[in-house]
Amino acid sequence: MVEDEMRLFLDEMAGVQPLKNNTTTTISEQKVSTQAQDARRKQLQMSEQLAKLTLDPNLILPVLPDAIVEFKRDGVQEAVFHRLSLGGYPVKHEIDLHTLKATQAREALYQQIQISRERGERSIVVIHGKGAKSKPYPGLMKSFVVTWLQEIEEVLAFHSAQRQHGGTGALYVMLVKSEQKRIETRETNHKGVNVR
After folding, report:
1. pLDDT at 180 > cutoff 80
2. Domain with residues 58-183, CATH architecture
3. Which of 36, 120, 138, 148 shows its CA 20 to 30 Å from the CA of 157?
4. Is the pLDDT confidence value at 162 over 50?
């Protein structure tokens, strides 16, 4: 009976060839595919976020060229915000938007915020200029930047810069911690817990 089953099995398997081992190409193809998917996902997220940031000057609140501007989300401590307003946090990057068109400025600002967060940076300087002679009203780029920053979730707070960093033509911008920085902070704060 076992011999009959074996013969039937071998008859059925006649002409079958083993698969070639292509595990290496499959893994590298998956890696390339995953990187491409990540890039497409990031591009889609950026497009969605940029679409939320208006380019219509009629839909933003005009800000005077020399006005001091400030914004903070709920949960930002007063001492932290005060330190930000004094330029008390280290800044590795600044972005100059005042010579760009609104569409270019919007994309450059959003990208710089994302790049800075990925690098673990907590603050940047945004130079928007005063725009005293801009049209259709003075302070147009400044008004756009102030509006956009309030709409970008990764922005915790901003304040007009000190004179040496651009004064009312620039902003100190505080960013939300990246996920990696949150993990590092959690680990640092938990070291020594339950140790006697």
Report:
1. no
2. 2-Layer Sandwich (3.30)
3. 138
4. yes
- Transcribe 106-152 into DSSP letters: HHHHHHHHHHHHHTT--EEEEE----TT-SSSTTHHHHHHHHHHHH-
Q: Are strands 123-127 and 94-96 parallel, antiparallel or unpaired?
A: parallel
8 Å CB contact between 81 and 159:
yes
Cα–Cα distance measured from residue 191 to residue 194, given in angstroms and rounded to the nearest whole number: 9
What letter does residue 166 receive in the DSSP assignment? Answer: T
Please tell me whether residue 72 adopts helix, strand or coil conformation: strand
pLDDT at 196: 45
Question: Could you give the angle at which helices 102-118 and 140-151 cross, rounded to 10 degrees?
Answer: 40
CB 53 within 8 A of CB 152: yes
